[in-house]
Amino acid sequence: MKFSLRTKLTMSYILIASICVSLISIISNVYLDKHFKDYIINNQEKKNSEIVNMVAQQYDAARGWDKYSVQSIGIGALENGMIIKVKDNEGMIVWDAMLYNSGMCHDMMSRMADNMYSRYPGWKGEYVENSYPITYQGEAVGKIEIGYYGPFYFTDSDLAFINTLNRVFISVGVVSLFLSFIIGALMSKRISKPITRVISTARMISRGYYGGRNDERSDTKEINQLTDAINDLAQNLESQERLRKQLTADVAHELRTPLATLQSHMEAMIDGVWEADAERLKSCHEEIMRLNRLVGDLGKLAKYESDNLTLNKTEFDLGELITRIGQNFENEFRSKNIVLLINVSEQRIFADKDKISQIIINLVSNALKYTQDSGQVNISLTGDKDGIRLSIADSGIGIAKEDLPYIFERFYRADKSRNRLTGGAGIGLTIAKAIIEAHKGRIEVQSELNKGTAFTILLPKKQA
Ligand code: ADP
């Protein structure tokens, strides 16, 4: 059987309250029985000696026994559950409760028996009698027999005390149950309400509505963590979904131009409008090459942009890597008459060498691509014990201010017409940024139109 959180919490509160109240009443009753019994037995001894004293004071050598006073003491004792019999030295009865009023004595005995049965069903009690000597100035003048229901008994007021105590326990129990029900219901409502909301948010997410968020805060830590986790999940799914749509749109956009060009060229040639000469076929071939490059770039993008980009880290000298890449570019720089200045020191870093060299190649080839003849490109590498700073600066065409925030986005090209000719698809920087971020580093750009561009890479030397 499945219960709601609310039912379970309320039931547990009630259960705890019932267990506590029952335990308190049982333990109290057990202790009460033991101590109250001892108290009653002690008290009986005290009452007996008080009666003996009081009766002894009613004897006077000159006048003998004051029978009326003994009688009033005897009636008082009878009312308290004691049957007394006073005899003088000769064994003559001075006063006897049984003789005075035997009906009252029997009534009193059966009342005490009832009191005891009401508390202890099956109680076995009997009449007990104790005898005490009565002395006057050191000499025995008689004796008193005190009888009562034994071994001990509860008077009406004793029983009333015990019953009141038990009634208090019952009232406390009832109030506790009521309170635990109310508090349980309130508490469970406070806990289950935000959980219910989280469930409905999660259901919305599972149906594909990623926009739903749960902003309500609870005073329960775990519930806030659950809400945050679900909100993060929604956020991630939403951004994944956006990325997916964006990527599809971008790819469609990128494919459209070369495909349209190819289509129109082919149609013109099929219709005989154009002759299929070498030059036109070459132009078609170039478009096909562009498509090919684009498909290759898309493959790379998928590899580098995925969140779990795996890095194969080793320790190597970044300065040496840069020098080697620079040497590979020497001819291209020379043919464009661009000066390439490399100023690096030995900087050992722990990183994925292939991927880092991919970034440097991207940035250096961009610098070469976007710098006019007779320009200059500076590569410098500095570092301290924690990290390195690599700068690749050119005196090229620069990037317009309005384009700067977007150049790391995929397929973004600052100058579309020019870039189409240079062949860039606009993903080199996207890949560079993804690799650097996977290394817990940062890439920054500073640029001024027609003056030049500087890319700065900051990388920690050691990564976890
Ligand atoms: P692409 O393959 O088009 O070069 P990138 O992602 O490498 O793609 O660069 C994105 C855009 O940023 C480029 O199209 C270009 O407009 C601009 N850009 C990148 N590097 C430079 C640079 N050194 N000088 C001027 N513009 C640059």
UniProtKB/TrEMBL annotation:
Presence of keyword Ribonucleoprotein: no
Domain Histidine kinase: 250-463
Catalytic activity: ATP + protein L-histidine = ADP + protein N-phospho-L-histidine
CDD domains in the record: HATPase, HisKA
EC numbers, comma separated: 2.7.13.3
Protein's cellular compartments: Membrane
Annotated Gene3D superfamilies: 1.10.287.130, 6.10.340.10, Histidine kinase-like ATPase, C-terminal domain
Top EC class for this record: transferase
SUPFAM superfamilies: ATPase domain of HSP90 chaperone/DNA topoisomerase II/histidine kinase, HAMP domain-like, Homodimeric domain of signal transducing histidine kinase
PROSITE patterns for the chain: HAMP, HIS_KIN
Protein name in the entry: histidine kinase
Organism of derivation: Lutispora saccharofermentans
Phylogenetic classification of the source organism: Bacteria, Bacillati, Bacillota, Clostridia, Lutisporales
